[in-house]
Amino acid sequence: MMEKIYVRNSYLYKLVRDNEYDHLMVYADISARDHIIDEKTKQVLLGSKTKNKNMK
User: Fold this and answer.
1) DSSP labels for the chain?
2) What's the structural domain count of the chain?
């Protein structure tokens, strides 16, 4: 489960076009609370419900 997602910065990094599609590469500086909870016991199995994880 991901909660409290904060996008601090993002921008288009690269654009590639072919005959059918446009391919976008985007840089994103994000933090979020990421955790896995046991559905039966409601205990956190992995990650944290209170600490943000930084992702780039």
Assistant:
1) -EEEEEEEEEEEEEEEE-SS-EEEEEEEEEEEEEEEE-TTT--EEEE-SSS-EEE-
2) 1
